[in-house]
Amino acid sequence: MKTAIKTRRADNFAEWYQEVIREADMAEHSGVRGCMIIKPWGFAIWERIQRRLDDLIRATGHHNVCFPLFIPIELFEREAKHVEGFAKEMAVVTHHRLVERDGKLVPDAELESPLIVRPTSETIIGEAMAKWVKSWRDLPLMLNQWCNVVRWEMRPRLFLRTSEFLWQEGHTAHAGRDEAIEETRRMLEVYRQVVEDDMRMPVIRGTKTPGERFPGADDTHTIEAMMQDGRALQAGTSHFLGQNFARAAGIQFQDKGGELKHAFTTSWGASTRLVGALIMTHADDDGLRLPPTIAPTQVLIVPIARDDAARAEVMPAAEALAKRLRALRFRDEPLRVGVDARDDSGANKRWAAIKKGVPVIVELGPRDIAAGAVTYTRRDAIAEKHQGIAMDAFAASLPETLGAIDEALWRQALDYRKAQTVEGIRSYDDLAAHFRSEAGTGFVHGKLAPEGETGDRLQAIGVTVRCLPYEQSGTSGTCLVSGRPATQDAVFAKAY
Amino acid sequence: MKTAIKTRRADNFAEWYQEVIREADMAEHSGVRGCMIIKPWGFAIWERIQRRLDDLIRATGHHNVCFPLFIPIELFEREAKHVEGFAKEMAVVTHHRLVERDGKLVPDAELESPLIVRPTSETIIGEAMAKWVKSWRDLPLMLNQWCNVVRWEMRPRLFLRTSEFLWQEGHTAHAGRDEAIEETRRMLEVYRQVVEDDMRMPVIRGTKTPGERFPGADDTHTIEAMMQDGRALQAGTSHFLGQNFARAAGIQFQDKGGELKHAFTTSWGASTRLVGALIMTHADDDGLRLPPTIAPTQVLIVPIARDDAARAEVMPAAEALAKRLRALRFRDEPLRVGVDARDDSGANKRWAAIKKGVPVIVELGPRDIAAGAVTYTRRDAIAEKHQGIAMDAFAASLPETLGAIDEALWRQALDYRKAQTVEGIRSYDDLAAHFRSEAGTGFVHGKLAPEGETGDRLQAIGVTVRCLPYEQSGTSGTCLVSGRPATQDAVFAKAY
């Protein structure tokens, strides 16, 4: 069977991924190494994710702010561990002027001290918090910003690894350790909610091993999703920073007893990478598939008209139908309904909508109008065209149809993860054999002894510990890395 | 009479402006030269402006996108006129790595060719449009992005002149000249709508003289507002770029007849500067005043409780009142109602709300609750406390009260502009005498001959032509610069 995406997932996942993005017209590489252009459809998807996240971030008591793009190099020097993790690849501003010389533009006016384009903002926000926080009354301080950050990428991939990316970064300061840990977990739950309930991507919640933590953090909590090539993708992280950043920046407060103490801080972020994860979770060999809550357009009406006369009849009917459907609601929001009024064939327009992942595609021609009916396609099952469906019945069941599509995407992603999860591995050799085999992907659930360095042996087989799941079985077994007795459950996988 | 802002507008406008921002806790300078930190209240105001603008930008058929932060230096070399206007002060990225040397971090890995942090994105968006546009079917192409831009500032002022600022920049390409000019004017009207109808700042719409145009534009349309020191502030501009950028970037299309033509492009922007303009239009000697549509909190309830027992009674009553008021609507949106639950005195909390510009401040104590009444203050008239107002009557008239505040702010701004507008000046000497005098500010409406250089003589008195208003009287007179006969009306002013 011919598919809309030339390369199939099973044949070349990376190539398929690029083609899905191109065919859905979501994004492309720019002339600037590692920086992408997010086009209208890709950006609208990001805006949907953003809106859902932003609502929950506000509802949990955070305030949006805006800190500078540039960070003085000195601020990075303060926090040694943090720098180790990031210092490698950052964009450095050294001049603040251009002048023309021999017909070419060249940098001029060198800065006394270089500025770093933020790779993340713990340092500069920490500096401000140190100024703002004086007493326990000033805590908790709960901030969030939506912004661009830059981490130079040598091997860029659209949405997944780009030198510039968009994200939100939350930063909070608290009087007590427990309260900060609670915040760290609360925000991971916010991520889980958006990723699972809205984006319909099943995730495993857990903490990172010391070697996989955010540079400078005491603990990193993560949600790990599985892509359709069996690899893991970290879909959101929330860091308990202990007093490390507070000490480096001097975030101190007088407690109720008058004693001066360092605050406990957290940070947490989710980025445009989520758009890449959404594609790799739900897209198929015919292009993107979008869960209705995230779809910028949930229902697209494709007017079918062979000539101007037909067009004059069909266009107003399409608009009238759109208006009618917009009065319906799905999950407390009015339906997002579009009409594809472009001058192209019905078949081309239907396929364009399929490749963009629109959940429900309605075809409306003169014959449908005469019969008071529509023809529609569910994106999760395009083989079947629902023809001659009475318009009233179609409209009445539309929210339910969207719910069914939502559920189908969730179910398929869950089934895929289940099929790609391996439980029985008991030794490093078996682990290595699994990941070295042809079909060796997916999540391996196994034991990990808490001490010792796991990095080298796992690195040799291209595997990382994705997380130590919140849900621990409590059983005993053998550590898959060291072979020692171990009770701690861990998830091992190749990862993005 | 003592005022909440120490410095009065009339005494030192610049100092007053800084204090209003500080007392309302809106923003502050960061350690990075010229870059500000926008704090929660300042950012929430920007988000309100942003939401209103974004809604209208979408409603006029534009799509949000995201282009890279960095622009290759070569792209600037292509568009000579554009570079002249901007080349001076831009942040230049020259390295993409940091390394530690002698315990200090230093830039490493020099880029082959420097990258510019975007001061505006005509060049990079033009390059993409050249790739995307092939035929008349691809036009119009109507894009918008919300982003940060950087123009190095030597004398920064919060919101008004910062090296990094936030804005939206719209970029469109059209097949025909008239259509592009129509778009240019349509977007100016969008700006007028948000600035006048929502922010309640009266503006004059017009076009810029050639010397004041955007670098590379054929025509620049502007809305000019008057600040409370009589100076003009450009509150939004919309540029008709003709075929200049299309030629530089190669944006060509095949028209219906198969002929290859250059597109006509436009660009238009409005920035965080608007927050500064809002302050300088509406704030008074007691702090900020916000029009209800823009106020993040329209009604703040201040619980009055001297002890824990009173607090236990008042807090639930305050929350219940807030809930009740949130069910009301103002201009198609539910009311935004807050409760100030902080542990501080009622008087302090009331003054904090006054300085933040909250339109309606409600005090609620045990006696009010017993009487089923409230005490409230309108921010536009804080001298009068409305005491013992029955809660039902207060709630019922609240949308009307907000409407009255909205109208009062508009009326006062309009009256101020009227009082500061001078009509009778007929010669350059009188113009110079006016602007050199103690009270020499405001808008001078006068004639300007269309030809010749006006820059030098006006520069000598610190004045610019703000615009050639859309509404022309058609009368004859004498050019205020050259003394020649002239029919064209112009607005002269000192400006931000």
Describe the protein:
Two copies of one chain form a homodimer. The first copy, chain A, is α+β, with helices and mostly antiparallel strands. Chain A folds into three domains: 13-282, 2-Layer Sandwich (BirA Bifunctional Protein, domain 2), CATH 3.30.930; 299-404, Anticodon-binding domain (Rossmann fold, 3-Layer(aba) Sandwich), CATH 3.40.50.800; 421-493, 2-Layer Sandwich (Translation Initiation Factor IF3), CATH 3.30.110.30. In chain A, 35% of the residues lie in helices and 30% in strands. The first copy, chain A, contains 14 helices and 27 strands. An eleven-stranded mixed sheet of chain A has the order 3-7-8-14-11-10-9-24-27-23-22, with helices on both faces. In chain A, strands 18-15-19-20-21 form a five-stranded mixed sheet, sandwiched between helices. In chain A, helix 2 (40-59) runs antiparallel to helix 6. Chain A is globular. The two termini of chain A are 30 Å apart. The model of chain A has no long low-confidence stretch (mean pLDDT 95). Chains A and B meet through strand 2, helix 2, strand 3, strand 4 and helix 3 of A and strand 2, helix 2, strand 3, strand 4 and helix 3 of B. Strand 5 of chain A pairs antiparallel with strand 5 (92-101) of chain B, so a sheet runs across the interface.
